């Protein structure tokens, strides 16, 4: 199994040779030029192929034990066929950057399943093997959950430590973060739980000064230095070892799940490098989050474990079921929200999501969440990233500011998507893209320089969000809770009435406003750089800051103007009526919704954070408003926009195709073009077919009765034709260039002395998908989406007229939406 | 709009007449004989058709205002076409008990949408209309949520009152339930909150005695009398006014959502009668719940509101989107679990569930839940039906009893499904089914007689479940919490250590065991009677009783044997280690899972009840075990079993078809059968076609170039052929029996003096769905499922060979699963 890639790549190379150095990849030129904004290094990757394979070989030995069952299955299936029907190696696999055929994958899996069921009746051992096969799905889910949870825990711990390393070090144990350091110290009191002698700022350690301008400048300088070091390490690692580890990964995962092949995108190197660099970039203080990349990391885990079981490794369709579940596990550990994770996978990421996958995804998400909790990286036994508890209900009148926050979220989402896409396009097309390391260094430097002086941008973004979400309890020491206390009220209860804001709150408001502007601008330039970068946390931060500002504003307005008609009914003096933390949460949901256009999953994730249905209505109002406002300016979320930017062949299930075109308008050949390249069932020679293959770059050829009648018999894949002819020339005696290829049951009558004919019915797909030329395109689009086709043949009264590929459909859709149809790049 | 049904039915009748009294319903004989186990009254319904229509007419005036927009749309679409292309009335609708064509519905909706979009550019008014149309989906959801929530609240209040009415009456206000009566009374103390002078048992009121044998017997007698009265009223109402109101409704709703037409099943009468009778039967104390019927009630609301908007009323596909959301709202109010409701609709009920529906369902579910909460029928501001809060975590060793409960749930599920289906089959086939009223009376009498002496069966089942779920707090006065207190411990804390069970607990165990046996047996006979009856609550009750018994057992074992190796690690003396309430909840989930085979939605509903992720693992372990155990004995859940029993054409998305048959094995005509009835494109006369229609009962006919070439042109629906010919004969001059019907663009060359030909290209479906004869059946099944086809034509190299209908597919699947293929009854 693990040795196979090497064999395959060797075979592929020799194959290219035999066809005169012509690459069988139709658009292979594309893949080297214009790959995903973070995949310029494609060519390098290819060069490192051999190096990968050596690693694979080493690993092969390690995996040997695990693969016993697979090997058994492989031998078993081989024995069933006679010599002529023996499959050539590589049949049934796909080229890189090609689309899979879902129907074919599904039917291959049913065949496999049928074989196992039949064999299971033969002996006890076979029965046990069939049971193992049936259970392997659950085993894979368990393993994914365990690994994804562990990795998330490790990342959380490492980020905590390294973020604090920028400011100082723990003398008692250097691997302790600030909080852990003072937690284990006996000298810290509860009030001053951040201060303990073991934790020393760099200035204290180096020049023995904790206050004063020089200490501040030293700390500032070291903060920037650490940030630059982390960022440089990250971008270098990504460039050198795993170019695919950059970005959030969600656009590519969406494309892969929809049935596209990007080899290595979910590989082991990507997993390793992405995990390491994610820690580095988050610690460097850049305006990015770890949530999106965690989904990528979880999918890499899913891909790794599915490669251990032949059920999944040999079937691209089944593998994608595992990946869908892995994506759910990723979100589950990112937020501690297993149900939200499953819904996120269902709503946002997945393409083919049968109910069986739903149940397994839920299992994987739960295992991952509980693994993370048992690692307990936040030290509070909480599952969720931002645990909040509010004590006050919300009032109907507050819906107005909530909806305003929704509008803000929608506007910000639109602005962000437009600016970010424009910047990424510029990066792709101009010389800017040639210096990714320099770009990262520059953005990191700017971020660190601007962020340090402002306490709200200096700390890590998730801490910031956490503080903004919090309600001001009696024990809260934050500057945001610096209210003027009523001297008559002493008891430290949760239900503190609204109070006038103190100087600290006003101070914080200014700092937050500056932080808001800074975050809004810097995030546009950060997302899309050649480092792992998630968008959830920065979006939520922008929303949370805006929300908290609005919340404090409403609170103070209600306190000072109890008698206004809008407050009179629900906010009496001395009551705790406005919770600014709730506004922050609503704002975060609105901004996240505006950028990603998530709906149900967003609300459910937020619901799992608060744990009460109470606040679902505000969240929902904001999410709906934000989606509507953002949709008014453009239907695409950030992930779809990046998919389009990269030209992936992604057929979105959410887009509605409402134009009145017919299949005949889309099919190739168009009027005036050369006729369709077809094979005939019993009159073409090997040489004819080889010439056709050489002269065209189509992925397959329809087979017709004869060129005159054009009645369709079936469809032959280019890849399998090439392999079959090569195989026959090598192994079958008498097959020469003049041999007639026939696809019929019986050989055609050939004149005596002519060479031995070659039967290729076996590689013929006898049930190609057809539609008539009058079929409305909306139906065709529906069929492509729901059945996951690669191509579809067009007929009129039984005669073959043309072909529609997925790329044709996507191009047509782009054209109808007044976009550049040439933006779709891959098949 | 509302007047149309009358017109339609008149037209339909005259149409039948013109065809010589032959019903166009292919299997019309079935529909009168063997309808759903609660639909024998089919014939009665037909007779009452006119009566319905009069009501419709009256309502027409009422709805006039609402329908302004619709009327506008209708006129608009009419104007676009010239005279010849004018649609005949009734085109595009379906017969009762027929399957819809999803692809056609979808493309009709796209047409409508396109028209509105084009017109919206013409004037401001049209633009506003297009906005209204776009928003109508949300308006419908809002209305459904409001009405479903209100109805659920009213049902809860009425059930509360009427259940208590069986025992006594409130003197201060007879419409108060026991709890409300004593709540408003000043004389009740907190400890004795059930006792107040205003609430009088019947014996106190009638003979002034509250204790003693005679009072007991009087109360017993009146309890039975009330129960019988309620049950008799319910069954009579159902029989006379709305035969479809019986059962849980979920099997039929699943079938309807999969694209089947059962007229009147979601009608206004059904809504009204089901709501009223649901209150009656739940109050009568029968072993049934209101949760399933609430889904039916919510779907009736959905159907009612969708009939107000032409977007939904005129499109069976769009209407089903609304119904899916309504089902979610139904579960949402049944349990107070909006997310669980959406997942239930997704997992269990719905067939076609686009993401847009997900979001809207969620909205409807939330509105319904909050409407219910603002009615506050339980008087505790809680949304959920069984609110529980546990204070103790669970331990790994407890997984063993949890899994045991899962096994119990699976076994019970299997047993229940087998026995219930056997009994329902007997009811259908023997004379038993002829006396539904008597049956209900008998079962009610038996239930009441056995239930009264046992306090756990006397009270309403939901109260019982609620008590079983509860943890024994310090203030709990229930018999189940009669533990022997440690005299040294006085403070009333939540975290009470495990204690030895008192006499009350042992007493309760015996009573619960009896209740368990009783519930298990009586539920088998109750579910399927001609009254509204849900299965969730009885299943949960069985599981909760079993779970509580196991829970108390484990608790006492752990208390008395702290030193056993299995307890030693986690259950020290004096600790609160076992929560029997949690066992009850796990048992309830296991039994519900065993009967319905729900998975994710079950766990999520239970999660929403407890509100903490803490207990998801036990619930999930039990649900998984229960599903696996039950699936080992048969894959069908109770709803699928009832669908099969009734012969509905339901193509389950969950079934996997793994056999190796080809389309050619399934298509009609089979080898040896008469050739396929086809139309030719330009050589058949009106008379030929009429004869063909008369002699066959197919739903449609393929149109070929000529009988010799058999190359497929398109497909004509029987219904539309009949309407078109009738219309042409009436309106078009020169169309006589000898007129040639042509489907080509140009009229065929006919000899001079021959009658005027009739062009019917307009009713021809030019893009019929085709597969080749070599297509594997698994692919065909997949296509039928995913695209929602009614039929599919089979070709070989462009020549028409046969046809496969949905019924053929279902029959083939039944045959492959060794079931009776004749059990599928409808098209």
Automatic annotation (TrEMBL), chains A, B:
Keywords recorded for this protein, A-Z: Antiport, ATP-binding, CBS domain, Chloride, Endosome, Ion transport, Membrane, Nucleotide-binding, Repeat, Transmembrane, Transmembrane helix, Transport
Query: Membrane-spanning regions, if any?
Result: 135-155, 220-245, 266-286, 322-346, 399-423, 435-452, 508-528, 535-554, 582-607
Tell me the Pfam families matching this sequence: CBS, Voltage_CLC
Q: Where in this protein does the record put region Disordered?
A: 17-36
The record ties this protein, via CDD domains, to: CBS_pair_voltage-gated_CLC_euk_bac, ClC_3_like
- Name where it mostly resides: membrane
Q: Which GO terms describe its molecular function?
A: antiporter activity; ATP binding; voltage-gated chloride channel activity
Q: Family per UniProt?
A: Belongs to the chloride channel (TC 2.A.49) family.
Protein name from the UniProt record: Chloride channel protein
The beginning of the lineage is: Eukaryota, Metazoa, Chordata, Craniata, Vertebrata
Q: Which gene encodes it?
A: CLCN4
